[in-house]
């Protein structure tokens, strides 16, 4: 059969769309995407025929396989459940803090019609987020609270509202760069605020702030380092020292505590600035993230003096960065958990932090004992070190245990683990795959065992051929 005849045998787009396998796929895939994949598959077969070295006859099976592979790739790109076996508790790439069951239930309730801006008593329009801000005031002791979509947005809103066109005094050692290459000086610039740098990279004193205050000074700002640590010959004032510094009453103190710690976590080796302590010390405005140590959804939370919060709420920027009803629902439930003193019992982050070493080791052994025997890998239980992550608590490790899979094909095994359902994300250390079970929930253990078995079988099958 010559190439012209082979090309004539290629099915049309419409014919392929009526194949049984493709009709089944059409039930779950957008038609526009499906048609695009069909055209790509047909074109690929056409190019194969036209290539000089090919004598391949057009194959309907090959076309279907290509379309199904593309559909599978598309599905893997969608948001889905991933078993976090990295040992990083606030993994930014995996969405940081997993939500508590109470928060998930509240999101489900809010996803239908809900009273996001309705007073059920009067039947009149209410203020969006009224209850969660009231809960945040109760938790932190602040006069007022406000919620926006992330802490970078909170910083922008605070600076633009309190200091647009004027200077804000900040230590050089606190001019941080956060994920994605976003730098604090750029945020200042975008907010229309002049940056007044003081001190040096490693040492800044109270008198540096006092000496920098002038007619153009709108505020003093302290920013927690969050994703890095300075050690050695370093010093910087505490928030209490900044509050008691010599400054005009018209110059407020802004405290960006970053990670959202609202309790003593020193028993886990974590020393982070505390939101409640910041408010108690007298900070005019304190801001922090909702999805780090606070254990809730992504949000930028601002608490502080009522007159400043009121001005921020009326800033036109607020409309652009406000949160949706699902975020408010999750944050409301998370704040209730903190107020009830149930963080360790209900928040997944705190459950991971407080999980006993012996329990983690036992889970590892349970998984290893349930794994199939394979000649392509050696499996054992080893000591490991987990991290908090998420731009919080840099350099602080938490002892853990992990399943170690020693194989000559670690990258391929990790790919197999990620490509199944549910996906599993581990890490490679010294050429071996490590699956740290501190970050794996109890209800995921059996799922993880099955996924490891499937992946080891794929690995062995691929290298036995």
From TrEMBL:
GO biological process, one term: conversion of seryl-tRNAsec to selenocys-tRNAsec
Subcellular location: Cytoplasm
Tree of life domain: Bacteria
Key word Cytoplasm present: yes
UniProt xrefs under InterPro entries: PyrdxlP-dep_Trfase, PyrdxlP-dep_Trfase_major, SelA-like, SelA_trans, SelA_trans_N_dom
Cofactor: pyridoxal 5'-phosphate
Entry-linked HAMAP family: SelA (MF_00423)
Stated name of the protein: L-seryl-tRNA(Sec) selenium transferase
Species annotation: Stieleria marina
Source lineage: Bacteria, Pseudomonadati, Planctomycetota, Planctomycetia, Pirellulales
Gene that this sequence comes from: selA_2
């Amino acid at each position: 059969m010559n190439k012209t005849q082979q090309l004539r045998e290629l099915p049309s787009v419409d014919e392929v769309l009526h194949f049984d396998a493709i009709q089944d796929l059409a039930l779950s895939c957008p038609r526009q995407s499906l048609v695009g994949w069909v055209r790509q598959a047909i074109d690929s077969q056409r190019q194969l025929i036209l290539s000089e070295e090919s004598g391949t006859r057009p194959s309907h099976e090959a076309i279907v396989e290509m379309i199904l592979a593309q559909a599978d790739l598309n599905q893997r790109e969608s948001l889905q459940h991933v078993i976090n076996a990295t040992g990083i508790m606030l993994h930014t790439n995996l969405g940081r803090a997993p939500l508590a069951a109470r928060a998930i239930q509240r999101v489900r309730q809010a996803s239908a019609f809900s009273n996001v801006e309705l007073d059920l008593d009067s039947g009149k329009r209410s203020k969006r987020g009224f209850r969660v801000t009231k809960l945040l005031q109760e938790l932190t002791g602040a006069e007022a609270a406000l919620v926006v979509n992330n802490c970078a947005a909170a910083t922008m809103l605070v600076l633009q509202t309190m200091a647009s066109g004027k200077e804000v005094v900040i230590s050089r050692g606190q001019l941080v760069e956060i994920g994605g290459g976003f730098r604090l000086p750029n945020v200042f610039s975008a907010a229309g605020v002049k940056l007044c740098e003081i001190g040096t990279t490693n040492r800044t004193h109270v008198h540096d702030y006092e000496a920098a205050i002038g007619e153009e000074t709108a505020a003093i700002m302290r920013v927690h380092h969050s994703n890095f640590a300075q050690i050695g010959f370093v010093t910087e004032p505490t928030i209490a020292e900044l509050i008691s510094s010599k400054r005009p009453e018209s110059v407020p103190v802004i405290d960006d505590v970053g990670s959202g710690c609202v309790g003593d976590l020193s028993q886990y080796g974590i020393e982070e600035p505390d939101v409640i302590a910041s408010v108690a010390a007298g900070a005019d405005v304190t801001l922090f993230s909702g999805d780090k140590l606070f254990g809730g959804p992504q949000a930028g939370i601002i608490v502080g003096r009522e007159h400043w919060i009121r001005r921020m709420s009326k800033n036109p920027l607020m409309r652009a960065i406000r949160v949706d009803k699902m975020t408010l629902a999750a944050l409301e439930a998370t704040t209730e958990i903190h107020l009830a003193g149930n963080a360790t019992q209900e928040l997944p982050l705190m459950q991971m932090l407080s999980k006993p070493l012996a329990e983690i080791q036992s889970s590892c052994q349970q998984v290893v004992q349930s794994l199939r025997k394979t000649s392509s890998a050696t499996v054992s239980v080893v000591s490991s070190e987990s991290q908090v992550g998420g731009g919080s608590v840099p350099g602080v490790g938490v002892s853990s245990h992990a399943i170690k899979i020693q194989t000559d094909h670690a990258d391929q095994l990790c790919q197999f683990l990620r490509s199944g359902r549910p996906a599993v994300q581990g890490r490679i250390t010294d050429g071996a795959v490590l699956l740290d079970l501190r970050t794996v929930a109890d209800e995921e253990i059996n799922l993880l065992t099955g996924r490891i078995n499937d992946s080891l079988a794929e690995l062995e099958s691929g290298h036995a051929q």
